Amino acid sequence: MISEISGIRIPDSKIAREAAELVRQHESEMLFNHSVRVYVFGAMKGVRDGLKFDPELLYVASLFHDMGLVDAYHTDTKRFEVDGADAAREFLRSRGLPEPKADLVWEAIALHTTPGVPEYMRPEIALTKAGVVMDVLGIGYDAYTPEQRARTIAALPRGNFKNEFVQDQLRSALKKPQTTFGTVNFEYIEHFDPTFCKPNVCARIHSAPWAT
Predict the structure, then answer these.
(1) Of 141, 121, 165, 143, nearest to 32 (Cα)?
(2) Are 37 and 156 in contact (CB under 8 A)?
(3) What distance in Å separates the CA atoms of residue 59 and residue 47, rounded to the nearest whole number?
(4) Could you tell me what percentage of the chain is helix, strand and coil, using 3-state DSSP and rounding each to the nearest 5?
(5) Cβ of 52: how many Cβ atoms within 10 Å?
């Protein structure tokens, strides 16, 4: 692992190294590179905006944010974000990290696909979300210099990211479609199967057991 990318130092504590080793064991090169880019782009935004954040916690949140997509951490009933959040919190607890810090990482991962909320929360949560949407959707792209973008991609190549990432998300969504309702994850299924219908909230309200 490169030690620094465009002025952003990759955390090198024992916890950081062990987290990277664990994630690398389970994720494809595409997902692992994406996860580290999430940290780099999130940290760049944090520095640019003058935010005070814990690089180690942001790094672990970034590394684990997609672990729920891999078989070893997949559950049948939880959103993939929660599967990844649970894995990160258990990892940090096993290394003796204080509970509030482990919970902070859990929140950052669990909320990383939730629109309109994480950006108003603590910096590690907001920056995890910012790194994700930058790398996946290009949101905030022009706020990064061409040099920052180029150096990040040179160190952590995207490869065939768009197609491979969508396929990974689709496989996860198809395994447990009920967990995608009310989230952007439903759209992975909808894109490939327009006949797939999610429950309508108005119909659910009217079918509730209340008289009125």
Answers:
(1) 165
(2) yes
(3) 14
(4) 65, 0, 35
(5) 7
Number of other residues whose CB lies within 10 A of the CB of residue 177: 15
Residue 178 tokens, joined: 């009920």
CA distances from 136 to 34, 150, 153, 202 (A): 9, 16, 13, 31
In three-state secondary structure terms, 9 is strand
* pTM of the full structure: 0.94
Cβ-based neighbours of 133, under 8 Å, separated by 6 or more: 139, 140
What totals of helices (H) and strands (E) does the chain contain, helices first?
Answer: 10, 2
Residues written for the chain: 212
The model's pLDDT over 104-145, given as tens digits with 9 standing for 90+, comes to 999 999 999 999 999 999 999 999 999 999 999 999 999 999
Comparing C-alpha atoms, which of 125, 148, 122 is closest to residue 135? Answer: 148
